[in-house]
Automatic annotation (TrEMBL):
It comes from the Eukaryota. Keywords: Aminotransferase, Pyridoxal phosphate, Transferase. Residues 50-415 form the Aminotransferase class I/classII large domain. In eukaryotes there are cytoplasmic, mitochondrial and chloroplastic isozymes. The keyword Transferase applies. The lineage of its organism: Eukaryota, Viridiplantae, Streptophyta, Embryophyta, Tracheophyta. It comes from Picea sitchensis. This is Aspartate aminotransferase. It catalyses: L-aspartate + 2-oxoglutarate = oxaloacetate + L-glutamate. Coiled coil: none annotated. InterPro entries: Aminotransferase_I/II_large, Asp_trans, NHTrfase_class1_PyrdxlP-BS, PyrdxlP-dep_Trfase, PyrdxlP-dep_Trfase_major, PyrdxlP-dep_Trfase_small. GO terms for cellular component: mitochondrion. Belongs to the class-I pyridoxal-phosphate-dependent aminotransferase family.
Length: 431
């Protein structure tokens, strides 16, 4: 009897195991391809010798090769074999974070002297944005975020996954290929008082269009009137003008006006530390006591996600920013990168004009930073790819960092070819 019961128990057990070994993820469909990273995949699969990748926002030298800065190599040499690999605190490297916020707010900023800045190391710019979005949801659960049109596509994913409702505000004017300042200001005025706004501190991605200093002042003034909250995403400090202070101008204007801002910083682009995932999130508070509380809550959000951030990139950033010589070298190298991009903008525009294109290409040189929002249609981009093996996102965004003296003529010719039909429309007065 006992034996029979034991047998039936084990059969039943076996049956249950058989039923539950498969089918768990039946409902999972392949995720849509990331529009930016998908471009690189397609580029890599292309065997054409003339292929060009102007899709991804990563700096390349004039030979089209990835760059490791000399300042980074020197920092690597200095830390090699000298540091242990212990965990960092939840908020990351305190030394690195101190240097990082000096870079954003200015060495002598009052908010730093008053210890009013709650700041933590973050997983590059993306991680800093995500931490802030989670913080916003947790402590202002009723709030929304106003995002410019267009923006870096991942902003939408980040605030969506943090369950913060999104609204948009006007930013880019397709006809002038510049800033739609009047509509932007209307949206700022019409948003409910105390709204959260996402602002690109410089080198707006994807448009390369930044407000002028005067326009930033007006935006800051209107934010005060409306008591809006400015969240700055600063992924390209130094990359726009070659000068890190100049590129932080918008932030400094808001500081002077007494705003309590938050800022996401990335060292991916300006130090070329893409894969190291090093950045910083800072939140300006009323006083030092509040800054301690806010920092502790940011750490609480980080703890169940990744516990603490990686150490190597933080050591590199700290080594560079804390040493006057290395920092000076880095500043020079940032300028070289920015100047190469500015030079390629001139070359691309010059080539297009020499080809006799009657379209205006002024925006190629008016826009700033890594990207040129060319104004090409998705169909024209498709032709660039299928006929000329040139890869970019379908919104017509050209990563100027991928343009070189070797490919700029080829690129200009191809753009001229695919925009010829727009030229006909232009002559007929339709554009
Ligand atoms: C506007 C903007 N914010 C943030 C990022 C984040 O980059 P990362 O996470 O590599 O620092 C990027 C990168 O392309 C960007 O363009």
């Amino acid at each position: 009897m006992a034996m029979a019961m034991a047998m039936s128990r084990s059969n039943a057990g076996r049956g249950i195991r058989l039923m539950s070994t498969s089918g768990w993820w039946k409902a999972v469909e392949p995720a849509p391809k990331d529009p930016i990273l998908g471009v690189t995949e397609a580029f890599l699969a292309d065997t054409d010798p003339n292929k060009v990748n102007v899709g991804v926002g990563a700096y390349r030298d004039d030979q089209g090769k990835p760059v490791v800065l000399q300042s980074v190599r020197e920092a690597e040499r200095r830390i090699l074999g000298k540091e242990n690999m212990e965990y960092l605190p939840m908020g990351g490297s305190v030394k690195m974070v101190e240097e990082s916020i000096k870079l954003a707010y200015g060495e002598n900023a009052d908010v730093l002297k008053d210890k009013r800045v709650a700041a933590v190391q973050a997983l590059s710019g993306t991680g800093a944005c995500r931490l802030f979005a989670e913080f916003q949801k947790r402590f202002r659960p009723e709030s929304q975020i106003y995002i410019p049109v267009p923006t870096w596509a991942n902003h939408h994913n980040i605030w969506r996954d943090a369950n913060v409702p999104q609204r948009t505000f006007h930013y880019y004017h397709p006809e002038t290929r510049g800033l739609d300042f009047a509509s932007l200001m209307d949206d700022v005025k019409n948003a409910p008082n105390g709204s959260f706004f996402l602002l690109h501190a410089c080198a707006h991605n994807p448009t390369g269009v930044d407000p002028t200093e005067e326009q930033w002042k007006e935006i800051s003034y209107q934010f005060k009137v409306k008591n809006h909250y400015p969240f700055f995403d600063m992924a390209y400090q130094g990359f726009a003008s070659g000068d890190t202070d100049r590129d932080a101008k918008a932030i400094r204007i808001f500081l002077e006006d007494g705003h309590q801002i938050a800022c996401a910083q990335s060292f991916a682009k300006n130090m070329g530390l893409y894969g190291q995932r090093v950045g910083c999130l800072s939140v300006i508070c009323d006083d030092a006591k509040q800054a301690v509380a806010v920092k502790s809550q940011l750490q609480q959000i980080a703890r169940p996600m990744y516990s603490n951030p990686p150490v190597h990139g933080a050591l590199l950033v700290y080594s560079i920013l804390s040493d006057p010589d290395l920092k000076a070298l880095w500043h020079k190298e940032v300028k070289v990168m920015a100047d190469r991009i500015i030079g390629m903008r001139e070359a691309l525009r010059g080539n297009l004009e020499n080809l006799g294109s009657p379209l205006s290409w002024n925006h190629v040189t008016d826009q700033i930073g890594m990207f040129c929002y060319s104004g090409m249609t998705p169909e024209q981009v498709d032709r660039l790819t299928s006929e000329f093996h040139i890869y970019l996102t379908r919104n017509g965004r050209i990563s100027m960092a991928g343009v070189t003296t070797g490919n700029v003529e080829y690129l200009a010719n191809a753009i001229h070819e695919v925009t010829k039909s727009s030229e006909k429309e232009l002559k007929a007065g339709a554009v």
